[in-house]
From TrEMBL:
It comes from Geoanaerobacter pelophilus. Pfam families: Cytochrom_B_C, Cytochrome_B. The keyword Lipoprotein does not apply. This is Cytochrome bc complex cytochrome b subunit. GO terms for molecular function: electron transfer activity; metal ion binding; oxidoreductase activity. Keywords: Electron transport, Heme, Iron, Membrane, Metal-binding, Respiratory chain, Transmembrane, Transmembrane helix, Transport. Residues 7-219 form the Cytochrome b/b6 N-terminal region profile domain. GO terms for cellular component: membrane. One of its GO terms (biological process) is respiratory electron transport chain.
């Protein structure tokens, strides 16, 4: 008997590894009509892992001090071996993570995978989306450049429009009246510790819910596209006759990750500064306001919405109402039909919302 078989047998008799592998991998059956969109969750896990690795490497040289932060980032880019590569992987990866997360949420919406009994899956995913936006915002300030300083000033200013508590919230976020060294310390702690740990916790919750309730069947290629869950008893959605996760769908996951890496490296090597305007290479100067400071592309719709309304409070209220509606969508949309083409009102609202979001982003970019 080979050494491998000896080790395999030793582990199996103690841990039951064979039955565990059969249950979680080869015996874990997925719908036969499952498609590539389902692999975006695995792509997001891969991106999050890569962000943690590159973030830890950046921490070796980054100094979270207002007098030294920009110089330390400059040193990483110019003097640390492969420092530029690590930093640009982190910068490009953060933007790609938001993009892939948006696609993942859209696929869940259009395939009706948010519907009962998956309300908690949707809510945990929605919270993850907001946490990813928060970690992106807090990471924006860390280079302590003109872009990061003034973008953070604009972002924290908008919170001040909330009645009664707005001014206190602004001071709490900044650690003072203005963006300064205390703000950098707070955002650094949030970016490297609080938010990543919270994201990891919610990823765990999201996966446990998925494992507990089962994978949703896509509505495409089926005659019956309505959910048959009646809501009276717990039911794990099984897929008898489906395809095993290992090796079949794992191959699809790996294919999607390779396609993502192709796009990621294309941006990294052919247009690495795509997400860094020229103000990102100038040290922060609190006494010199740039002429056209803009937030990251995924905050442009929020930025433009605030400009459209006569008061920032009204703009915030509209965005808050839209986000609340999105969070509570599984409790509002109680229909059992999952196929998007059989939900005309949903299709009209969804496509209209997407076009509005894109339009506001373009408008915000050129305004």
């Amino acid at each position: 008997m080979s050494l491998y078989k000896n080790i395999d047998n030793w582990l199996d008799v103690r841990l039951g590894t064979h039955s565990l592998i059969e249950k979680e991998l080869t015996g874990y059956l997925l719908p036969r009509n499952i498609n590539a969109w389902y692999s975006l969750g695995s792509v997001l896990l891969f991106i999050f892992s890569l962000q943690i690795v590159t973030g830890i490497l950046l921490l070796i040289y980054y100094v979270p001090d207002a007098d030294k932060a920009f110089a330390s980032v400059t040193m990483i880019m110019n003097r640390v071996p492969f420092g530029w590569l690590v930093r640009m992987c982190h910068v490009v990866g953060s933007n790609m993570m938001v993009l892939i997360l948006l696609f993942h949420m859209l696929s869940v919406l259009f395939m009706g995978s948010y519907k009962s009994p998956r309300e908690l899956n949707w809510l945990s995913g929605f919270i993850l989306f907001n946490l990813v936006m928060a970690i992106s915002l807090t990471g924006y300030l860390l280079p302590w450049s003109q872009l990061s300083y003034w973008a953070t000033t604009v972002a924290t200013n908008s919170v001040g429009a909330i009645p009664f508590i707005g001014s206190y919230l602004v001071e709490f976020l900044r650690g003072g009246k203005l963006v300064g060294p205390p703000t950098l310390g707070r955002f650094f702690a949030l970016h490297v510790a609080v938010i990543p740990i919270t994201i990891a916790a919610f990823v765990g919750i999201h996966l446990v819910l998925l494992q507990r309730i089962g994978v949703s069947t896509p509505p495409f290629g089926l005659k019956e596209t309505k959910s048959n869950w009646r809501g009276d008893t717990f039911r794990y959605e099984e897929h008898p006759g489906g395809i095993p996760f290992f090796p079949n769908y794992l191959l699809q996951d790996m294919t999607s990750i390779m396609l993502y890496l192709a796009l990621f490296f294309a941006v990294l090597f052919f247009d690495p500064y795509l997400f860094l305007p020229k103000d990102a290479f100038i040290p922060a100067d609190p006494f010199l306001t740039p002429a056209h400071i803009k937030p990251e592309w995924y905050f442009l719709p929020n930025y433009q919405t605030l400009k459209l309304f006569p008061s920032e409070f009204l703009g915030l209220a509209v965005q808050g109402a839209a986000m609340t509606f999105l969070a509570l969508l599984p409790f509002i949309d109680r229909g059992t039909e999952k196929h998007p083409l059989k939900r005309p009102l949903f299709m009209a609202c969804s496509i209209g919302g997407i076009l509005l979001w894109i339009g506001l982003a373009i408008w915000g970019h050129f305004s």
